[in-house]
Amino acid sequence: MRYYSYFPGCSLEATAVAYGLSTQAITGALDMELIELEDWNCCGSTPYGSTNELESLCIAARNLALAEKTGLDLVTPCSSCYTTLNRANSQLREYPDLKGKVDECLATAGLEYKGTVKIRHLFEVIFNDTGLKTIESKVMNPLTGLRVAPYYGCQLVRPEPSFDNQQNPQSLDRLIASLGAEPVPFPLKDRCCGGSLIIPELDLALGLIHQLLESAGSNGAQCIVTVCPLCQTNLDAYQGMVNSKFGTSYNLPILFFTQLLGVALGIELQGLGLDKGVISAEKVLAPSVTMAEPAT
Amino acid sequence: MGTKAYFLINVDEQITQNQEHLIRATGELEKIPEVEFVEPVSGIYDLMVKVDVPIRTIFVANKILEKEWVTRLLVLRIEPVEHRRIEHIEPEKISELSVTHLPQA
Amino acid sequence: MGTKAYLMVKMEMSYARDGHTDGMKELKAMPEIETVEPVSGDYDFVIAATVDAPVRVASVASEIRAKEWVKNLDVLKVEPAAPNPFLDEVCSTPGGECVRWCVQCGMCSASCPNVGKMDYSPRKIIALIRAGRRYDVLTSNSMWVCASCYLCTVRCPKDVKPTELMHALERLSFHHGLRHGATSTPAMYNAFVNSINNNGRVHELGLMSKFYLKTNPLAALKMIPIGLKLLSRGRMPLKPRKIRGINQLKTIIEKANVLGGAQ
Predict the structure, then answer these.
(1) Of 1.20.1050.140, 1.10.287.1770, 1.10.10.10, 3.30.310.50, which CATH number belongs to A2-122?
(2) Which residues span the domain enclosing C30?
(3) pLDDT digits 0-9 by tens, A221-258
(4) What is the interface pTM, i.e. ipTM, of the complex?
């Protein structure tokens, strides 16, 4: 059993509840236990970092200080939290003056951060620590014939020097293959969905989402699998708007990789949050398994 | 035959302490046709100027000295080495040495 | 990028007669020295040298002074003629130092998915910073349209980090109170920050309401169908959730305010 400290991130309590549900549902089967970081606060993400450097480092550092006490790696399913917390770690290392100020601020709350926490993305943890061989051996419902577009998003393999190629990653493709499904060629697999710009720059983001759906759809994808809560919401909840704006008729369910894993591992469907998607995955997944009735 | 020389110039304190004035002063000097470049420096002098004059440096030197913000000007004429050896034997033949000009109070 | 200096050397009289050529050879052999010109006047040589860190001008000067034929040496360090306070400001902000390394190849602009919406592409922003155009840069919409996809960062041949630079510019633009009128990203960022400062976590519904009320209430109407879909699927909690340690967080943030910026 491998233990990790768990940083869900704010969206897992809101738009990405399905991610949190499916994650907790599969960890048992993968011999992992994710212990939620007690009383974690928002990592700050891009908006805080773009407003005030010292404050944003401080709020990220509070989480790091709390995580350090557990002595475990800090694992997050959200690419943005992953990037933000990693960035905070690097900034504190590269700018000792800043670290001094951050230390002072943390001290007012009785906290300290020595700089030892390792931050990891949930996908990378499953890919590396559990490993594809183990996953393959545990597959109960091979997703044969399911054509899946692997959507990495931008912040899983960038900017941190990464466990996968930064411009043509393959890890998610291989995970999909190990579940018996067919990873579809997807040239824009690591391109941006617009992220949080969907709110202030709606049209700009819709354009990006349209390109992504087009690239996946035109290569025969039946669904898209993602590793980031923002990506999932953007591609799922706004797919209807993309269709209206561009006159398209996409109907691609957007699944979290943990949900796909859950289906393949034979986990009880109720626990995977499959009914949370705006675009329903029922039809697409039906050949692999019968779906439970969506909750009303 | 052209003569190249370095002029080392001191200027009013008020110029060195104000970036805008310094830029203006540098620009004024650069407008003089014989001036190749002007570089603000720090040390015992304030400006390093390179000139290329047709005959004698004294004319350009005087032009510069006319500016009321110039307090001192030192001339270093660039000489080929062989020429130098001869000049040291006959020091009186050296045309220009230092020209010092101090401001009126 | 090095420091340029003029070193003026006066030779010992006893060497001055015959030692010029040898002296020149010795000086020219030194790696930092670019030109050596024999002169007449108060000095015998004018040397132009460029030193790169970690070597310092002073150490080159000492090396020359140590030569037995050198009587006197004066150093004039070259100052940059046109100061660029904006460039200095950007370079002293964490994330901004890289501006000096750019060679304007344009790879960043070519990689940027949102460059079409930007007033100035990433490459141009860097050029403008180096030209000292503070107002143009800080009132542009460029950084507010950056999606932080990091493609530019990964592809830059000179290890410049345009994404980090964009965020640094956003901070500077907030700091100087200069913002592009037509971009509403700053308003969204402010609402985001407020949500964290009050609750410890981002309350998405609260954030969106504040944002639309402040910028364009009518645009909110377009979003209602999506909002309802998310609400009906339990993806849009109505009430914010405060963390237990919210006071602890507030204390930390207050102290950060007191300590001031991050320069």
Answers:
(1) 1.20.1050.140
(2) 3-77
(3) 999 999 999 999 999 999 999 999 999 999 999 999 99
(4) 0.92
